[in-house]
Amino acid sequence: MSLLATARQFVKNRIAPDFHDKRLAGLEGLSLAAVLKRKNPYLFKAKAVASAPDLVKQLLLAHLSSQEETLFGAFLEGLAIHICHHAYGGQKSTAEGIDLEFTRAAKRYIVSIKSGPNWGNASQIAKMTQNFDKARRIAGPNIHVIAINGCCYGKDASPAKKRNYIKLCGQDFWHLISGEPLLYQEIIDPLGHEARQRNNEFEEAFGRLHTRFTMQFTQDFCRPDASIDWDQLVALNSKAQSLWQP
Length: 246
Prior knowledge:
By secondary structure, the chain is of the alpha/beta class. It has two domains: about 1-90 and about 190-220; about 90-180, 3-Layer(aba) Sandwich (type ii restriction endonuclease, domain 2), CATH 3.40.1560.10. It is about 60% helix and about 10% strand. It has nine helices and five strands. It has a five-stranded mixed β-sheet with strand order 1-2-3-4-5. Helix 1 (about 5-30) runs antiparallel to helix 4 (about 50-90), helix 2 packs across helix 9 and helix 4 (about 50-90) runs antiparallel to helix 8 (about 195-220). The longest helix has about 35 residues, at about 50-90.
């Protein structure tokens, strides 16, 4: 089987259990209190959200967006490792902060995989560079190690960074780990495998959860006139258990 066929087969086989199933399971295990405690009530007040159904829906969508980014990021990391394994014998790394290791053209690559180019703040980037330095020391002075911050989508006009790594995004990243310049396009089509059916299932579950949470929210956080009791909502989210004295 060719590398492209292997990549497409992996996507078709793993997109359901690694993304769709976990996405649905995340709905089924969700509680209203957990969502309310994790999201910023001040933001929704500033957006002039006025009705319980609208607020609950926006809270759910914000929660699910974060969850989906995490799930799909893990799926793409697995896909990248799978592709590189078939192309260059790449393996998931055991080194701290390193996701993938492989050798290509007598050069040893260590890769920290991220979903997109705008993934971290200054301290997170500094931690990544520290992990690259540590991995180089472990490899020893006789091994030429090239550190890569690989981003599964996006672009970066200046891949050579000031510190100790190269940032490769989108086509450049997939080309590096596979040797196939058009792989970044080849993997998009099978992502739609069973997507319509699974999305219909998810939307039905989302609708039921939205209805149930709206009823619960109206009972617990709305006044008799059905307006949102923002004081009570903020208290659930932010009230101190014991007031700190300066």
